[in-house]
Amino acid sequence: MADERDNWRVRVRTIRGVMGVCHLLVEPDGRGAVLLDTGLVGEQGQIRRALRRLGLEPSEVRAILLTHGHLDHVGNLAWAKAWTGAPIYAHAAEQALIDGTFPYAGVNRWCGRLERIGRALLGVGAPAKIDRAIADGDELPWWGGLRVVHLPGHTPGHCGFYSARHDVLFSGDLFASYFFKVQVPPPILNSAPELMDASLAKAQRIGARFIVPQHYDVLDGELHRRRFDRLLARRVRWRAERGQMTV
Description:
The protein has helices at 2-6, 43-54, 71-74, 77-84, 95-99, 109-122, 196-206, 221-241; strands at 12-16, 21-26, 33-36, 61-65, 88-91, 132-134, 139-140, 146-150, 159-163, 168-172, 176-178, 181-183, 210-213. By secondary structure, it is α/β, with parallel strands linked by helices. The chain has one domain (2-241): 4-Layer Sandwich (Metallo-beta-lactamase, Chain A), CATH 3.60.15.10. The protein has a six-stranded mixed sheet, covered by helices on one side. It has a five-stranded mixed sheet with strand order 7-8-9-10-13. It has a two-stranded antiparallel sheet with strand order 11-12. The mean pLDDT is 94.
């Protein structure tokens, strides 16, 4: 088990786009992979090349897993589904975001405006139907087993994926982790901000040794875990100074 946990990085291919990253998770036997999010623009060629270097055909992508339906994560979704034939797994609440019909409200309306501009200028984000709706606690068979962790706040159906085999939590957009800035998403991007603290606490309770977000500088799960813990500690201190309750 120790070897499995220490060597998980060799089974992850980072696909870096202009707004963040998506991942190819290579099956333990090397005979297939799953695509975790699809990126915004510039990722299609990288995904093709990564599969080619792995000796895999598009048809060997077993599934497309989505953390959530924001445009920078589903911009290439329709293309990926058509190219691979793989089914899309996502929380049902994300379908409206994928389709570009989500009723953004309040300051979050700016997120909708930015996505409409992105679709118009970049020609990405064609609608695609979720084939399999996922929910908290679902066990998925790929990558040695992935458990769905519902982490709402950023969006209503935002999910992470936890691998007990590798002790890795893919945390989606729960937080961003860069050497110059570690933060939760800004308010304009969060559709259910009142749920964010509970989701942060839930992720911390999992106790994963490694955390991999979808916006980061280097693929270093231990580093991101340390940054995550410091981020939560700062939030606790900030709220305590203002006499606010924390989860």
